[in-house]
Design brief:
5-stranded parallel beta sheet, globular, Rossmann fold, about 325 residues, single chain, alpha/beta, 5 strands
């Protein structure tokens, strides 16, 4: 099929790209309350969708691709995602083969025999025709979002969050991605980003490693935004400030229909929650890092972020004044 004929014949999909623990799930769920929308939670995450295992095996957990680069299986994955990611019999059997421990099977790109079998079975899923508008969120497309936008007619929404809040959240839940060395070990990531920016590798300190990964992903997203000024961007802190009003503006910008269900979702979710729950008191989140990080952790974060070309936050944004 040609690039013109194999694209899903649907309204332009919205792809939310952000770091893990940056509010992407909450944002996706809110946008998914718009009538006629199909929402997809990390369909490119091999921990959640067996079809992603084969597509990403040679690209790593965070595929690093530039427009024009060839990546047939990864392209097939996104063609399927933007069509609604409906799983057929092969994908369902792959889930059964992986079993309840699927999220722990893949780490640092290693595949055991069971995972290889499931990946082969679910490889190159076929679009099945989805008339709804897709809202898909990804926590692994930061280094490939420009490639996806060049391959398919999508509407990117880049979601950022204060790095100190991201670090505190990664530490709270012992995030798998915070313990995965894929970013610093992939040669293509080094050549494309860290060597060009003259960024040293992290030390063996676990906190420094997490800070390094956070810095790289934020800087990569900022660079993608600089290349594409028409893309949409929000910070989690912005969305937490009078969330009903700020989401109304976002809905308008994205061409989504507001509904009573949208407002109800935002109000109902403005309650205490913890861990991987999406319920949170929004007003309490923006500066929660001030009580969740100690001085040594904050100093490490500020030092490591200084290695990266990040502009969204300045030194003043890391002061404890007013905490």
């Amino acid at each position: 099929m040609s690039a013109e004929t194999d694209r899903p014949e649907t309204k332009q999909a919205i792809v939310i790209a952000g770091l893990p623990r940056s509010g992407t799930t909450w944002t996706m769920r809110a946008l998914g309350t718009s009538p006629g929308v199909t929402r997809l939670n990390e369909p490119d995450n091999e921990d959640k969708f067996p079809a992603a295992i084969h597509a990403k095996h040679h690209l790593g957990r965070y595929p690093s691709l530039v427009p024009g680069q060839q990546a047939r299986s990864y392209r097939n994955l996104w063609l399927w995602i933007l069509d609604g990611a409906r799983e057929g019999r092969r994908e369902q059997w792959a889930r059964k083969i992986l079993g309840p421990g699927a999220t722990n099977r893949i780490f640092e790109g290693d595949l055991d025999l069971t995972t290889r079998l499931a990946a082969t079975l679910a490889r190159d899923p076929k679009p099945k025709g989805n008339p709804a508008r897709v809202v898909a969120k990804s926590i692994h497309a930061q280094l490939s979002i420009e490639w996806i936008a060049a391959e398919f007619p999508i509407t990117p929404l880049i979601l950022l969050r204060h790095p100190a809040n991201v670090l505190a959240s990664w530490m709270d839940v012992r995030l798998k991605d915070g313990r995965n060395s894929t970013l610093e070990s992939r040669p293509e990531v080094q050549a494309r980003y860290t060597e060009r920016w003259d960024v040293p590798p992290p030390s063996d300190d676990p906190v420094e490693k997490m800070c390094w990964r956070i810095g790289l992903l934020i800087a990569a997203l900022e660079e993608a935004l600089a290349h594409n000024p028409t893309w949409h961007m929000r910070t989690h802190e912005q969305l937490c400030t009078d969330s009903v009003a700020t989401f109304r503006t976002l809905f308008d910008d994205l061409g989504l229909e507001w509904s009573d269900a949208t407002e109800k979702f935002l109000v109902d979710n403005d309650t205490p929650g913890e861990g991987f729950e999406t319920q949170r008191v929004a007003a309490d989140l923006s500066e929660s890092w001030k009580r969740r990080l100690d001085d040594a952790q904050l100093a490490t974060l500020r030092r490591v972020l200084g290695w990266f070309p990040i502009t969204t936050w300045s030194d003043a944004d890391f002061e404890r004044t007013g905490s």
